[in-house]
Amino acid sequence: MKKTENFFEKTYEVARLIPFGKVTSYGAIATYLGTARSARMVGWAMNKAHDLEDVPAHRVVNRKGILTGKHHFDGTNLMQQLLENEGVVVVENQIQNFDKIFWNPMDEL
Fold first, then answer.
1. Name one GO biological process term (predicted).
2. Could you tell me which CATH number the domain at 2-108 has?
């Protein structure tokens, strides 16, 4: 279990660095952490991050820019509202101009 907690903490460290108004994907974080096939684990970490106010889990989406984690937020549209408050345009659960606002930790860190 300790290994998972360490992975979650590493995931949170990366998520905390995502700039306001930008998004990344579960897979991009997993790849940055050297565990490219662990995108699902990053998703699990983001689900647990809702108790941590300093982890912007709403900025982590799937590789196509779809808000697949939205059901894990309080309220039906909270994830979308948080993103829209940062200027991110979301239409039918999909981020618009995804390639322009995508933040890749491999390139940025």
1. DNA repair
2. 1.10.10.10
